[in-house]
Write a structure and sequence with these properties.
Chain lengths: ~325, ~525
């Protein structure tokens, strides 16, 4: 039983990682007042870029870089539409999702002729699991052994970086000048503008930070967790990350817990596949897949109080004409 | 102190599309003085100050600071030159602390911790020096507006501003808070700072400024030493002709009550009681004015009566029908059907749809009227005919019903709303801030219409924060403070007396009269 729990938690961590990265990405963007419904598209684009470059170069690091580059480029597109040209942020985000979904499949098929997939990655094209010191030696020690060996050790670098990004994001947001301004511009861009700070540049930096983290998230899917890009491999994770962000009320630590919760539900659903529960029978997989959304709606409806987004989120900044 | 002016503007021009907001503006502001700039709404005062603060760039003209020609490309440059500005709408982040707001943009390092504690010390010094006390850890959203304004001033001083621009600083303040602000300005002046005070209130100019410049329709028309001018002269300069600050009207001949409000209580979405047990009567043939500093429940009262806000409890008697406002679910259309017209306080938010054509706005809210429809379709012919008639009757310019409403000036937009409501011939007209952002010509027209309404035997309830307007139009004045009606006065109420009531000073007459009846 304990072993089952450890294994479930282990896959929770693996499944939470892309959610967490995307969720933190969204946090930077939305805290600055730029609503980003295009997390999904950026992740997908990054997954493809990472998968393709990692296959060609057989270098995971170059794959990661490519993923980040694609994601940041899509982020800048979003910024150009919604910051520079003050377009509707939702429309721009949706457009990016469509663009990424179509373009990755098309380019994948054109370049690799495997139905849109990228070929299986060669050795070195993937981020390998890092085995921590003594993980093997203490595996037999009860309780601590599996906890250390399975849960803490034995993940790839991107998993660790995702969880390190949580305190880092908190620190940036609440302890740095950039964070103060970022939070301010999401609440009251006019206050930032009159304080002599460029609203545009600040929001662009937020969008770039968002792109970088989405790049990590996408690369994780194709070259760390998986071994190559598959058509629409994000499968809605960008939207779950967005739900987690609202759920977490735009706070880094809460975002981590929300993503872990959603990852846990995912892990349970995989474990429950084809298993009979006495008295109930088999629970359809779709039920677990829908749970994150259902939970978000129910909990937001009354259990965790109101989630108030940054006040200026979604509103393009325009100097007021007196 | 040298004679070099702190600020000198030469031939500043600025246009927004077809609107020439500033025409060849010259201005000289002496160091260590309080210089007032007065003008009507839309005279170009705020635009001029926004240019000085780098918010807008002037089309041409020179700016000299301490005798040196400078280019102010953005607010950062202005701050660097020692210019600070307190905007009419505060530029504060509501969910930040006072300290965070003060350092925003003036953090001295990439990490906050050190900067914040240094700022705390500096802030303490500033607070002592200028007697501007605010708790640095309080959140802005928890502070009353008077204190929020102090934070704005502290923000400017923290950036070592030598010149402080205040744009309509007293609009949101009670008379007492305004007096306190003026004391602060005196202290600033004595410390050698230069203050630019933008306002449209003559009283403030006379009270605190050393010099005053008058703007009218984008032009600087005069500069006077305050001691050598008078309110009358300034008023004339502002509007370009001698103004009757009064409205010609005969004494009212009120008849039977048309609207009676009893024990009305309204709670807002935060759970705060904003209207507290208010009762009053409006009779046919009188204008009842509700005076008060903005934010004392007048807006909520008006919104409740016209059906766009729910009351907690209270009754409304209208034309003999009694409605329990606490339980009824009447909406704005129902209220209009009960012969209550409504000219909302904010025409842009509630009165008009700016992107609609004039003729569409001229029936907004009455679009279900059979006179304007053919079955489920709108009868565009009838609507346009009606619009043309209203345009003529109310002298709405340009006289074109096919024009987008956004292209009309504030005064003409307000006339569109007024025409729509008055021409449906309601028994009671609810009017909020009828002349806000309206030029003086239109003000006179609007005031005359309201008096005509009254003379035609209708009841008018007028809510306005402009005391002059209340006094000019009302046959009876009710003063609201903190959600309650704290006093009632007749048509010839003293300004000072009303001012005290508006500031919440206890009224002894009301107790004797047994509340506002």
């Amino acid at each position: 039983m304990f072993e089952v729990l450890i294994l479930t938690l282990d896959s929770t961590v693996r499944l939470s990682t892309p959610l967490l990265l995307a969720c933190l990405a969204g946090l930077y963007s939305e805290r600055s007042g730029v609503v980003d419904i295009g997390l999904e598209g950026k992740m997908l684009g990054a997954a493809f870029g990472a998968g393709a470059v990692a296959y060609i170069t057989a270098n995971a690091w170059l794959g990661l870089m490519a993923g980040i580059a694609v994601s940041v480029a899509l982020g800048l597109l979003h910024g150009f539409a919604s910051i520079t040209n003050r377009g509707n942020q939702i429309v721009s985000g949706v457009a990016i999702n469509f663009l990424a979904a179509g373009l990755t499949a098309l380019l994948g098929q054109t370049w690799f002729q495997q139905g849109g997939r990228t070929p299986s990655l060669p050795d070195g094209g993937r981020f390998k699991d890092v085995v921590w010191p003594f993980a093997e030696q203490i595996r037999e020690v009860p309780f601590i052994g599996p906890l250390y060996g399975e849960l803490i050790s034995g993940h790839n670098l991107l998993v660790y970086s995702a969880f390190l990004a949580v305190p880092l994001t908190w620190w940036v947001l609440f302890r740095s000048r950039f964070g103060l301004r970022l939070r301010a511009v999401g609440e009251s861009p006019a206050a930032v503008d009159t304080a002599g700070i460029s609203v545009t540049w600040l929001r662009y930096r937020a969008v770039i930070a968002c792109g970088i983290l989405c790049g990590f998230a996408g690369a994780y899917l194709s070259i760390a967790q998986g071994s190559g890009f598959g058509v629409n491999m994000t499968a809605g994770k960008g939207f779950i990350a967005l739900a987690a962000l609202i759920f977490a009320k735009w706070r880094p630590a809460s975002a981590m817990f929300a993503c872990l919760l959603f990852g846990f539900l995912d892990a349970v659903s995989i474990r429950m596949q084809g298993q009979e529960i006495p008295g109930i029978g088999e629970i359809p997989v779709q039920f677990f897949q829908a749970l994150p959304y259902i939970l978000t709606v129910i909990l937001l409806a009354g259990f965790i109080g109101k989630a108030i987004p940054p006040k200026a989120a979604g509103i393009p900044y325009l100097k007021e004409r007196s | 102190m040298s004679d070099t002016p702190a600020i000198e503007l030469r031939k500043i021009n600025k246009s927004f599309g077809p609107v020439h907001a500033n025409k060849d503006i010259d201005l000289v502001v002496k160091k260590g003085s309080i210089h007032g700039i007065i003008g009507e709404n839309g005279a170009g005062k705020s635009t001029l100050m926004s240019i000085l603060y780098g918010f807008y760039a002037a089309d041409d003209g020179d700016i000299l600071i301490n005798g040196e020609k400078v280019t102010i490309s953005d607010s950062k440059a202005a701050i660097g030159m020692g210019i600070g500005m307190v905007h009419q709408h505060f530029m504060l982040v509501d969910n930040f602390s006072v300290l965070e707001n003060v350092v925003l943009g003036a953090e001295d390092s990439a990490l906050l911790a050190g900067g914040l504690s240094r700022a705390r010390t500096t802030l303490k010094h500033l607070e002592d020096e200028y007697e501007l006390r605010v708790d640095p850890d309080a959140l802005i959203q928890d502070l009353p507006v008077g204190l929020q304004q102090r934070v704005e001033i502290l923000k400017a001083l923290y950036r070592s501003a030598e010149v402080l621009i205040l744009d309509e600083p007293t609009g949101v303040l009670t008379p007492a808070e305004a007096d306190h602000l003026f004391k602060i300005l005196e202290v600033l002046k004595n410390e050698g700072k230069t203050v630019l005070l933008i306002t449209h209130k003559l009283r403030e100019i006379m009270k605190v400024t050393d010099t005053v410049s008058v703007m009218r329709r984008g032009e600087m028309v005069a500069t006077r030493e305050t001691a050598k001018t008078s309110m009358e002269e300034l008023a004339e300069l502002m509007v370009g002709r001698s103004v009757l600050l009064r409205v010609d009207k005969d004494p009212a001949t009120p008849e039977a009550p048309v609207m009676e409000v009893e024990n009305l209580t309204v709670t807002d979405s935060r759970g705060v009681q904003v209207v507290k047990d208010v009762s009053f009567t409006v009779r046919a043939g009188e204008i009842v004015g509700i005076a008060g500093v903005s934010g004392n429940g007048q807006s909520e009262l008006l919104e409740t009566l016209c059906g766009i806000r729910r009351a907690t409890s209270g009754t409304l008697k209208i034309n003999g029908e009694t409605i329990d406002l606490g339980t009824s679910r009447l909406d704005a259309a129902d209220m209009r059907a009960k012969s209550m017209g409504h000219v909302p306080e904010d025409r842009h938010r509630m009165g008009l749809i700016n992107s609609f054509y004039e003729y569409e706005n001229s029936i907004l809210g009455y679009h279900r009227d059979p006179a304007y429809s053919k079955g489920v379709l709108m009868d565009l012919g009838a609507i346009k005919k009606n619009a043309v008639a209203e345009i003529e009757k109310y002298d709405i310019r340009p006289p074109n019903p096919m024009l987008k409403t956004a292209n009309f000036s504030g005064g003409n937009q307000q006339k569109i709303v007024l025409a729509r409501e008055i021409e449906r011939d309601p028994e009671v007209l609810l009017v909020g801030q009828p002349t806000r952002g309206v030029d003086i010509g239109a003000i006179e027209f609007i005031h005359r219409r309201l008096v005509e309404m009254r003379d035609a035997g209708k009841g008018v309830l007028l809510v306005s924060v402009e005391l002059d307007e209340i006094r000019a139009l009302s046959d009876r004045v009710l003063v609201m403070f903190d959600g309650k009606i704290v006093g009632e006065r007749g048509a010839n109420a003293e300004e000072g007396e009303l001012g005290l009531l508006m500031a919440g000073v206890e009224d002894n007459q009301t107790a004797a009269a047994g509340g506002a009846q």
